[in-house]
Amino acid sequence: MKADFSEMRNELQSRDAFWRRIQLECQQLHRELLKIREYKPENQMKRKSSCVQLTEQLENKNSELLLLAQSQEHQREVLNKIRNHLYREEQSHCSEQERMKTEISDLTEELHQQEITIATIMEKASLLERQLKMELEIKDKLLAKQQLLDFQYKVLQSENMHLKEMV
């Protein structure tokens, strides 16, 4: 897209330079025309011959000037179209950049919220893990006590049995 902008700018600069050259040539032709009108040679014959030549040159220059004026108008129209197109493209590019900035900002905020959520979940998981370990230790102790009590019960039961047999 930047390459297109660059091409358009180069084209505009080229056409502007051409337009300036045309204007300078028009000014030069107007100066020559004024000189021709002011020119008054002393010899009448020279003047007539010179006048005919100058008139022919002037007519040629006038036709060239007319062609240049038409070309200039066409170049101006093309230049305006290119400027308008360039302006629309720049506006489109700017709005696209703004949209992308907004989207990036939204995504960054969403990512930040997810990071906070993950951190909260990790804290809760750590707390639950500690609680689970504590409960597991308590259950292990209770299991050990129960096994000891079971063993004592079996011992007492076997003693009781032994005593019954003796009686």
Note down, in words, how this protein is organized:
By secondary structure, the chain is an all-alpha fold. The protein is built from 2 helices and no strands. The chain has helices at 2-38, 44-166. Helix 1 runs antiparallel to helix 2 (44-166). It is found in: Cytoplasm. It comes from Turnix velox. Residues 55-124 form a coiled coil. This is DEUP1 protein.
Features:
167 residues, single chain, 2 helices, mainly alpha
Structural Rg: 51 Å
The end-to-end span amounts to: 109 Å
Helix content: over 70%
- Assess the beta-strand content as a share of residues: under 5%
Number of DSSP E strands: 0
Query: What is the N-to-C succession of helices and strands?
Result: HH
The DSSP helix count reads: 2
How is the main sheet built? Answer: none
Return residue spans where pLDDT drops below 50 for at least 5 consecutive residues.
41-45
Task: Calculate the mean pLDDT score and round it.
Answer: 85
Structural class: mainly alpha
Shape: rod-shaped
Concise summary:
The chain has 167 residues and is an all-alpha fold. It has two helices and no strands. The model is unreliable at 41-45 (pLDDT under 50).
Chain-wise SSE layout:
Elements (H helix, E strand, L loop, with lengths): L1 H37 L5 H123 L1
Helix pairs in contact: 1-2
